[in-house]
Amino acid sequence: MKRLSLFVIALLSFASCCESSRYASRADAIAAQMRDPSSKYVVVACHRGDWRNWPENSIPAIESVIAMGADIVEIDVHMTADSVLVLCHDADVKRTTNFSRVYRDQKDKSAKVCDLTLAEIKSLSLQRQHRAAAIDTLRMPTLREALLCTKDRICVNVDKGYDYYDAVLALTEELGVTDQVLIKGKKSIETVAANEAGHPHNMMYMPIVDIQKENGQKLLDSYMTQQVVPLAYEVCWQNNDDGAFPEACRRIREQGSKIWVNTIWGSLCGGNGNDDDAAYQCKDPGEVYQQYLDNGVSMIQTDRPELLIGWLSKKGRHCLPRR
Questions:
Q1: How far apart are CA 13 and CA 10, in angstroms?
Q2: pLDDT tens-digit readout, 93-130
Q3: Is 6 among the domain residues?
Q4: Residues with Cβ < 8 Å from 213, sequence gap 6 or more?
Q5: What is the CATH classification number for the domain harbouring 71?
Q6: pTM of this prediction?
Q7: Which residue of 5, 54, 256, 307 sits 20 to 30 Å from the alpha carbon of 197, by its own alpha carbon?
Q8: Residue 283 CB neighbour total at 10 angstroms
């Protein structure tokens, strides 16, 4: 079987978990677990960092989830007018910065990242989304600044990054973090393979399959029929009515790949009763999260990392084994 170069991640568990001295970094330790098909370790990915306490996609938001013991921080990138990649989820900066206040007298000023220079973006302050009036003195980081922060400490999922693949890869190679960075997407096997063939060393890539949509099912089927075995699939589904999720998990497990799910929103994991907020409201978070472990999921992207890590640790599923 062919193996498509893919997602491999990194990090050490917290507190009671000890990293073996055979690993040069936390990234190396977790990557070994990700490559091990028999590993029971569950990787926790944090959506835009700790956005509940810091502005999303900011350096403190990243530092916070590292301190929590998370394995991956998911960040979003866009490119400025002067070709610098910065951390921003939206195509414009209105929601995440004080742009509207700074340029209130310039109604025709574009807020799109692609229309602003790095200097203009750095002149803006980040703001916290759950308190619309709260402005921080923090500035939007560049991807370089973020990767220097995360290097060897936590792995990175560069979301919205595939359109900038060459630029992201050049930066990860320069900083020596290529094996710690994941990019994922819905591209065909042929497109991904052709893109990777142009580089001697590539970041990890994971296909996203929305199993209740025609294109997502076709993409999953193409991997199965062509016998291409990625390290993991990101599986998305909207409801649990048709049994599509457990069936997809069965096929993926039999193929030998890992399974990533997103519990950040119910629309990505079968409905609102299956997400982080539902787990938060339960006396036992396992009422929500156990179903994923039962289906063989070993990577979970969450908006409540402390809750998930705490529950997984109690179950012995977030502690790296001694070697």
A1: 10
A2: 999 999 999 999 999 999 999 999 999 999 999 998 76
A3: no
A4: none
A5: 3.20.20.190
A6: 0.91
A7: 256
A8: 6
